[in-house]
Amino acid sequence: MANINKNISLNQMQELLQSSFQSREVYHLPESFYEEQKRAIEIFNKRIFLESVIDETISFNKKLNWDYEKNNLKLTTTAEELVEVFKLRSDVFSEINYQHEFPDTIEGLNFDKFDKTSAVIYYQQNKEVTASIRLIFDSKNGLPSEGKAKFDDMRKKHKTIGEISRNIVKYRGKGLNQEFKYLMCGVYNVFTNNDIDIALSGIKKEHLKLFKKLGGVDIYKEMNAYGSLKVPVLIISYNPQYASKFFKKVFLNE
Hints:
Layout: H1 2-22, H2 24-27, H3 31-62, E1 73-75, H4 79-95, E2 118-125, E3 128-137, H5 152-157, E4 161-169, H6 178-193, E5 198-204, H7 208-212, E6 217-223, E7 233-238, H8 245-250
Parallel strand pairs: 4-5
Antiparallel strand pairs: 1-2, 2-3, 3-4, 5-7, 6-7
Helix pairs in contact: 1-3
């Protein structure tokens, strides 16, 4: 009931602001006033969008089967956890100059509509969120990389497809660092415990050797660039059903 009342109140406030903006000809106020009002409406709309992303992402994640036992790797189920993940994305993308391709929706918070149908996984060290990844389940919104490649053939072959994205690590090192290992264990956990068959993912071509070690990785499409990122990129498919002996030994400790 609280969420319903909150949403009604936000919608009513949005309608009031837009109505006031549309009545500019009646009041004949300075142009600068309307520009400020327009910016206020844009900010308010983004806040409403943030609220909806948080609510729907939490609801989606709570319905997923998750049985990973180590406390430092978690599936997000609270607003506080999601905000920390959104902050981390923003910080890392800014640091590596990916902000143009993956811009913040609100300054300092990086999120989008695809989070609503994503398993959002994060790793924490000393109570600090230091890495995150998401596994997006296919929905009416499609998948984010479909702006660069179409996945209709994959939908014909598989009942449920997805996309791995927002693979974020705060403290970067060479090779298989600890955070990457944990994140891929989280993806594997979601795959094996929920209704999804295969996932696509955009990676730099230079990282293919690293991902091949996981097993179940094939090249789906090669590209000279990915949007504003002018580097050789691959769209790969990943099926953990074919996990390598290396992955099972090093990642899963089997």
